[in-house]
Fold these 2 entries.
Entry 1:
Amino acid sequence: MAVSPHCTRCSAAEEDAIHCLRDCPHYREIWLRVGALSWPRFLINGCTDWVRAQAQGRNGTRFVACLWGIWKWRNNMLFEEVGWSVGEAWRRLCNEHDDIERFMNGEDDVNDDSWMARRWKAPPEGHVNLCVDGSGCSLLSEARALKLGLQVAWDRGYRDVICNTDCSDLLKALEDDERRQFLPILGEIRDLTSRSWNVSLSGISRDCNLPADWLAKKGAASPSMDLCLLDNPPSELEILIIRDRLAFP
Ligand SMILES: [Zn+2]
C-alpha cells in the first residue's frame, strides 16, 4: 500500500478502499465502460456491502473482473515504470473476464453477449466469412472493397456468406435510396447481394477486422491496381489470422 493516505491519482484527501476501487475519477472510466452505473445498488455506501451486493448480483462476473482489473491497474501505476493507459487496463480486464467465463462455463457454452473482449467470431459450419476493408476512410474505397469481395466470393461458388465490414457508414448508405443514386456502386452491391445466394451483411469493430485492414493497407501501398489473390497469407498476416483464431483481442 502507498504510505501517504492521499490518493495519488486525484485530489481526494483519503484513499480508502471504496475510493480506490469505485469512487476515484481515474477508475470511474472502467465502471462507465462496463455500464455499472445502471446496475442495481451500485452506488451504495460501505465497501463490504457494496462488494457483496455486486459480486452476488446479475453482473457478478463482470464486477469481479473490473474490481480485480482496477486493483491491478492501481498497482501498476504505483509500482511499475510504465503506466497503462485506460485502454490497456480495459483490454487486460476484458481478457481476464473472458478467461473466467471460459473456465466456469466452457468456451462453447458461453452466451455471445457475455464476452467482454471484442473478438472475431468464426462463422457457423458451412458458411464463409468475408471480411472487407477499404484503404483510407472513404466510403468509395470501402464500397469498392465490398463489391470486389462479394464478386470473388460469388465467382468461387460460395453460396452461404457472412460478410463483415467495419464501415458503419457503408451499411447505412446501402439502405439509403438517395445515396444509392448518387453513388452507383452502392446499387451494384445491392444487385450482387440480391442474387440467389444466402449473403448477410453486418458491421464489426475495427479490432475484429485487422487481417482485412492489413490487406487494405498493403494493397494501397502497392503500385499495381490489379486484383491480387493470395492462396496463402504472408507471415505478417498469418499472425493476425492466428490471433483471431485464438480469439485474443
Ligand atoms: Zn482518487
Note: Residues 89 and 136 are 29 Å apart (CA to CA).
Entry 2:
Amino acid sequence: MQLSQSDLPMFFEERHASLATQLTAAAPQLEEADARGDAAVVEVMARHGLFELVCGKVESRSLCLAREMLGYVSPRADSIFAVQGLGTYPLQLAGSPEQKSHLSAFARGAGIAAFALTEPEAGSDVAAIQTRAAPTSDGYRLDGDKLFISNLGLADHAVVVASTEPELGARGLTAFWLPLSTAGVTVQPLAATAPHPIGALQLRGAIVPASARIGAVGQGMKLAMQTLDTFRVSVGAAAVGMARRALDEALAFVTRRIQFGKLLAEQPLIQATLADMQVDLDTARLLVLRAAHKRDTGSDRVTTEVSIAKLGATEAAFRVIDRAVQLLGGRGVMQGNVVEHLYRAIRPLRIYEGTSEIQRTIIGKALVTPRMPK
Ligand SMILES: Cc1cc2nc3c(=O)[nH]c(=O)nc-3n(C[C@H](O)[C@H](O)[C@H](O)COP(=O)(O)OP(=O)(O)OC[C@H]3O[C@@H](n4cnc5c(N)ncnc54)[C@H](O)[C@@H]3O)c2cc1C
C-alpha cells in the first residue's frame, strides 16, 4: 500500500514520514480486524494510537494520510475513525475544562463518540432542526429524533445539536454533550450499504445538566459547521484510499486473466480504462492535498477548495471503483470480492458531510458572488 506522502512529497513535511510509517504498520492488522467487526477495528486503531490524530490538534494532512490508509484497508474503520473526530471536535472548539478532560479517554479509544446533527426533516437543510432542548431549572430536557447517526451502537457519548430558541431558527441552535446511557435516550440500529455502525437516536424527555451544554447558547450551528469544515476534506482522502485499492485490485486481475489467448492487460481498451482510472485517482489526490495543505499552512478561506476536493475526489473515486468492477467482470459483482465491497462502501461518501449537490452549490455560489452586478 502506497500513501500520497511518498510520491507527492511536496505537500508534506518531514514529520509526516514517521506518521506514514506508523500508518503502514497498522494497515495489515486493520485489514485482518475488519472481518471481525467494529469492536476489533476500534481495538487495533486504539493500540496504534490513531484516535490521537482526531482527538487532539487536528492537522488536515495527517488526517488525510490516515483516512487514505483506512479507506484502502478498511472503510469500516475509516468511518469509525472519522466520526470519533466529528463527535469530539466540538469539545475541542468550545468545551468546558470538565468536558475537555474527557478528550484523553477518546484519544485512547476508551470512549467512542457520535455526532448527531441530521434529523428526519433536517438533512441538507441543517437549519430545519426540530429537536428541542427546553431549559429546566438546572439544565435542559431533550426531545426529538436524529437519523443516520454514525457510530451509534458503539458510541457512549454523542454531540447533539438541538434548538434552544426555536423562534431564532439556525441562530437558536445549541450543542450538547450527551451520555447515551441517559434515561429517555434510545438507539435504533440501521444497516447501510457497507459495514458502518449507524443508527437513529430517539430523545424522549432526556434530562441533562446545564454543564452538558457545549459553548454558548445559540452557538450550535457555528460549532457544527466548523466541525464539518475541518473534517470534510478528509472524506476526499478516504475516497482516494478506496479508489487506489480498486485500481490495485484491477491491475492485479488484468495482469493475470487470459481471454482471447492473451492477458487482458494487453488489450488497448483495457489499458485505456486503466489510464482513465489513474487520471481520476491522481486528480482526486491533488484536489485533496491542495485543500489539506492550504488548511494547514494558514490560508484564511479554504471552504471552496475543501468543497472542490470533497466533490471531485468522491465522484472520481466512484468512477474508478465502478471501472474496477467492470474490469473484473462477473467476479467484480460477487459478494466477498474486494471491489464489490468497495462499490458499496464508496457510495455514502457522495452523500454524507454535505452531498455532492450541496458542494456544487457552495462552489457555484463562490464563483458567481464576486461577479454579480452591484
Ligand atoms: C452512511 C451515512 C452516514 C451518516 N452519518 C451521519 C452522522 O454521523 N451524523 C449526522 O448528523 N448525519 C449523518 N448522515 C446524514 C447525512 O449528512 C445526510 O444524509 C445528508 O446531509 C443528506 O441529507 P438527507 O439524507 O436528508 O437528504 P436530503 O437533504 O433530503 O437530500 C436529498 C437529495 O436532494 C438533494 N438536495 C437537497 N437540497 C438541495 C438543493 N438545495 N439543491 C439541489 N439538491 C438538493 C441532495 O443533494 C440529495 O441528493 C449520514 C448519512 C449517511 C448516508
Note: Residues 220-254 form the longest helix (35 residues).
